[in-house]
Each structure stands twice: as C-alpha cells, then as structure tokens.
Write a sequence for this structure.
C-alpha cells in the first residue's frame, strides 16, 4: 500500500462546477497537509497548506483534513478553465521534512 | 532571483553517460530538496539539504546518484552511468523557516536517457 493514495482521474467538469479532489494516507505520523497545482511542463505550485483537522478556505479553494479517517480533500468552487491542471496532494511528518505526494489528479474544466 | 531556477530545462543523453543537473534556490532559503517525477506519477523525494549538509538522502535510489551543495546555495544532482529508467523530470525545491517551511518548486529538468 502506498503512503498516499490519490485517484489519478482524469476528471472533466463544465465551467462553474464544484470540484472535489481527495486523497487518503496511511501513516498517522503525517501532520502537515498540502495541495499543489501543476500545469503541464511546469513545477508544482502550492495552493493550500494546513496542519490541523478541519477546513481552511482561500478564495474559491477549501482544503479539508480529517485526521481520524486519514482523509484530505480539496474543493474548488465556481471552477474556471484556468483551473485545468494536475492537482497533487502532499503530506509531511514535520514542517521541513520531505513531502510524500499522491499520484495527482488531472482536472479539465470545459468552457 | 524571484524563484527556484533549474538548468538545463531539457537534457538528452545516452545510456551509460554522466549528467549533472543544477538548482539555484530562492535567495536566503536554507533548505533544498530534490525530487524525481516520472510520467503520470507524483514527485518522489530524493534528498534534502539543510545548509551544506545532506540531512536526509534516503530517497536516492542507488549509488549512481549523488548530490552536493558545497556553499549552502546552489546544488548539483549528479547521475553516473545513466540508465533508461532514469528518464524523468527532476524537480528542485527550496524552503526557509521564515517562509513557514513552504517548499517552492522550480520548473524541473526533463532528463531523457536514450
């Protein structure tokens, strides 16, 4: 079993839809949770970062962490064609520790 | 510079050759990380530097891979006797405590071993 599981998709939605992206992890030692966005042939860029259970909101993006279920989610409201990218979840044991990534979910938002 | 830069952006080499990949972190960032991303996969950790020393090299796949950061800034990832299975995008990231330990990634070097 991989440390972080993420459905690779692909996921295709119409513009304006609510998108839900999910990951599960196996090791309860992971305390830091991140979502990165990666455009084609670019490096990952950080979208959301949290270290506690619950919700964290930033504009159209909401990150949700449930440590009891070892489940993390990213919600995108009012999705836009510019949101089309691969979304990677990542976890870490400490603040400056190595990141363990999921496979990434490829999202396409159709105008 | 404004972000992490990596050179070259693309590298094509033949099986058995030696390659060096360079990473320039964000100025002032003390931590530097190397990851490898194969097609259709998430990045996989290779090695992490804190200053000049390798704090964690547990992700290096074998002794053909080596990385240095002699002055605590620029880092070079070195691969000896390259194999076709080494073909991937090699990503570098840097972070600092003052920036909340967030890892900022460069654009990567796409390595193709023929």
């Amino acid at each position: 079993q991989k440390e972080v599981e993420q459905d690779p998709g692909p996921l295709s939605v119409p513009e304006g839809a609510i998108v839900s992206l999910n990951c599960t992890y196996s090791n309860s030692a992971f305390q830091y949770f991140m979502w990165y966005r990666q455009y084609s042939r670019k490096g990952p860029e950080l979208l959301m970062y949290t270290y506690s259970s619950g919700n964290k909101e930033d504009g159209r993006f909401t990150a949700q962490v449930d440590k009891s279920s070892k489940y993390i989610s990213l919600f995108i409201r009012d999705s836009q064609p510019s949101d089309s990218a691969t979304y990677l979840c990542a976890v870490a044991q400490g603040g400056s520790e190595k990141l363990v990534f999921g496979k990434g979910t490829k999202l396409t938002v159709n105008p | 510079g404004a972000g992490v830069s990596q050179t070259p952006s693309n590298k094509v080499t033949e099986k058995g050759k030696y390659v060096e990949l360079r990473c320039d972190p964000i100025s002032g960032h003390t931590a530097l990380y190397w990851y490898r991303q194969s097609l259709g996969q998430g990045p996989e950790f290779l090695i992490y530097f804190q200053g000049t020393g390798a704090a964690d090299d547990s992700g290096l796949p074998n002794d053909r891979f080596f990385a240095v950061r002699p002055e605590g800034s620029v880092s070079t990832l070195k691969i000896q006797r390259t194999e076709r299975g080494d073909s991937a995008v090699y990503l570098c990231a840097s972070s600092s405590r003052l920036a909340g330990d967030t890892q900022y990634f460069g654009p990567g070097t796409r390595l193709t071993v023929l």
In short: The longest strand of chain B covers residues 88-95. The CA atoms of residues 68 and 76 of chain B lie 6 Å apart. The mean pLDDT of chain B is 95.
